Amino acid sequence: MHVDEVDELLSIRAAELYYEENKTQDEIGQALRLTRWKVGRLLAQAKQRGFIRIEILHPRARRLPIERRLREERGLADAIVVSTAGVQSPEELQERTAQAAADYLTAIRPVPRTLGVSWGRTLFEISQHLRSGWATGVNVVQINGGVSLNRRPGTAAATAVGIAQKGGGSATLLPSPAILERLATKEAIESDRVVAAVIELARSADAYLFSAGAADHSSVHVESGYLSPADVDVLVQKGAVGDIVGRYIDSDGNIVDPALDARTVGLTLDELRSAELAVAVIAGSAKHAVADAVVRSGLCSVLVTDEATALHLLNG
Amino acid sequence: MHVDEVDELLSIRAAELYYEENKTQDEIGQALRLTRWKVGRLLAQAKQRGFIRIEILHPRARRLPIERRLREERGLADAIVVSTAGVQSPEELQERTAQAAADYLTAIRPVPRTLGVSWGRTLFEISQHLRSGWATGVNVVQINGGVSLNRRPGTAAATAVGIAQKGGGSATLLPSPAILERLATKEAIESDRVVAAVIELARSADAYLFSAGAADHSSVHVESGYLSPADVDVLVQKGAVGDIVGRYIDSDGNIVDPALDARTVGLTLDELRSAELAVAVIAGSAKHAVADAVVRSGLCSVLVTDEATALHLLNG
DNA sequence: GGCCCCGTTGCTCATGTGAGCAGGATCACC
DNA sequence: GGTGATCCTGCTCACATGAGCAACGGGGCC
User: Fold this and answer.
1) Range B129-155 average pLDDT
2) pLDDT tens digits for A133-155?
3) What is the pLDDT, as a whole number, of residue B49?
4) Are B118 and B210 contacting, i.e. CB atoms less than 8 angstroms apart?
């Protein structure tokens, strides 16, 4: 039996007594016939070698070391990473992330006067998790088209209005479909006085809050009727990994289908990229690829995500 | 937002800074605008409410609090519980437990002069994990019959001999099948001078080491040809949960089939029960029921097992 | 409205713990 | 077999932490 092996075993015995039995290092020393300094070193060793895992089990728990790595290694201004410890379902993960996004939004200083938001399942959940009074007099403006064509009419509007109301302000909706069938129609809509004014307001926002969609049939665009499942398949074939504010991007963050993009109403990706504060909220294993594209191509300055996604960004 | 809720969130934030960022309570106090005493209380609260989980990730890690509960609540003289943290396969669990049993055997003081052992997969693994020189001059004696009928001839012998050799002593084998077809044959064998002497020696052992088998087709008795799968089915129907030293017991620790039992060679259950030191080594989810029966009916004074089995004993 | 009770707060003090350091053992290499 | 480098040990000291305690304050009850 090698010396290192003996030390390893001893460090495990010491860790058991220290962490499970709450003994002092001195007591452990007496029990194992070691000086208390040796015990301290064994415990430090056990930690350093990764034998000790400390987890914070709570829906609101975050992973600060991973957040730091995201800031440092991926150049983000800020990162919020929720813990996946104890998560039972994808829905729970989604909820934790939405909660964290709501927390982050609430904590932004100075409080944004104008906030640009996209819409979708994630944004809606965030709006629900916000507390009344999270801001005072915030003006919420939609940054991409979102009049639902078939199901769930008004969730886009409900999201923006909800965020605004709880923030003691008003919402400015973008009265336009997300994607139009013909380019001419899209240009006509954008030149409409009201629509143009909303987009202009969106461009002037202090901060943006948006999510990302995965490029698959579960997309909100498919659900809302803007794209058919077959359309999505074609996009995937062209390299699409997901969409941001209705615009499909590849793994480098570039527009996949310029023609489609030209028919999409709302802020452009470059306008997002040049924003001072662009908060992306992306969670779930289905969105690992989009999250990666978004962060790589600088589409957001702040990312709110879950631990698994964050680790994917760091190791992938 | 209720006060308790605020405190809960604060304790999570504090825990993140304390355990993940290694800040001092004082630093955390400054960051969260609290006194360091408040921080200390929040951390204590987080621990006490179970938000903090500390795990020792190591094949040799044990669960001392569960061992204590087994001793106190189930009246065992001693209990060894190996951690299941990070276990990938049932084989790994089995190996960890065998290793722990070998460790326990090595640590018994005074060193037993005569050790009675059963045989089987578990015992064989224990013999392999023992280190040469674990004892000096130990006499190992088989406590139940075990001349394999078909496959793997000699593992029973190899186990006893291995334990003896590594302990610097000799092995005394029980030259008899485990179960005989006819009662008369069994009685004849037991009256044989050599066999009788071995059993007499077994009765005088200072300590016993044995495992338990589950009552299913994977049993060593089936594998060795002493019982057919159909025989086992019948036993199960009669309430058998497993076997100890070849004897099938029900959930109360009583012999299931007295006729069969009468044809089984080796120590009786009552002889085991009255032993000073009887160490049972039982691991794996298939053996939860037997483990329970063994402990309930006082068949062992010391139990070596895994965390999941131990929790089954405590909660079931 | 006054009073009491109980939970919370910020403290003192004792204990627990980690950093850094000098002496000593160990090992490889000459 | 000598010698130097390196690691390890047991220490001092400074800091971090938990226990216990008095003062405070808020809420319920008379």
Assistant:
1) 78
2) 899 889 999 999 876 544 455 67
3) 92
4) yes
Global pTM reads 0.88
State phi, psi for A122 to the nearest 5 degrees: -65, -50
Grouping H, G, I as helix, E, B as strand and the rest as coil, residue A186 is helix
Contact criterion met (CB below 8 Å) for A249 and A256: yes
Determine contact, residues B299/B268, Cβ cutoff 8 Å: no
Average pLDDT over residues A191-204: 91
The 10 Å Cβ neighbour count of residue B308 is 16
How far apart are the CA of B62 and the nearest CA of chain A, in angstroms? 7
Helical H segments across chain A, by residue range = 3-15, 25-32, 36-48, 64-74, 90-107, 121-129, 155-166, 183-191, 193-203, 220-224, 229-237, 258-262, 269-273, 288-296, 307-315
- Can you give the three-state secondary structure of chain B, one letter per residue? CCHHHHHHHHHHHHHHHHHHCCCCHHHHHHHHCCCHHHHHHHHHHHHHCCCEEEEECCCCCECHHHHHHHHHHHCCCEEEEECCCCCCCHHHHHHHHHHHHHHHHHHCCCCCCEEEECCCHHHHHHHHHCCCCCCCCCEEEECECCCCCCCCCCHHHHHHHHHHHHCCCCEECCCCCCECCCHHHHHHHHHCHHHHHHHHHHHCCCEEEEEEEECCCCCHHHHHCCCCHHHHHHHHHCCEEEEECCEEEECCCCECCHHHHHCECECCHHHHHCCCCEEEEECCHHHHHHHHHHHHCCCCCEEEEEHHHHHHHHHC
- Answer whether B56 sits within 8 Å of A50, measured CB to CB: no
Cα–Cα dist A220/A213, whole Å:
7
> Which pLDDT tens digit goes with each residue over A14-57?
999 999 999 999 999 999 999 999 999 999 999 999 999 999 99
CA→C1' distance for B308 and D8 (Å) = 40
Please give the angle made by the CA atoms of B127, B132 and B138, to the nearest 5 degrees: 75
Nucleotides of D under 7 A from a protein CB: 9-12, 15-20
pLDDT band, very low/low/confident/very high, at B295 (cuts 50, 70, 90): very high
Q: Would you call A241 helix, strand, or coil by DSSP?
A: strand
Q: Which residue's entry shows tokens 């300590």? A: B207
For residue A22, the one-letter residue type is N
Considering only residues 54 to 73 of chain A, which have any Cβ-Cβ distance to chain B shorter than 8 Å? 54-58, 60-65
Residue in B20, B50, B58 nearest the CB of A12: B58
Report d(CA B72, CA B74) in Å as an integer.
Answer: 6
Residue A263 CA neighbour count, 13 Å, CB half: 12
Task: Tell me how far CA of residue B285 lies from CA of A22, B178, B246, in angstroms.
Answer: 30, 25, 20
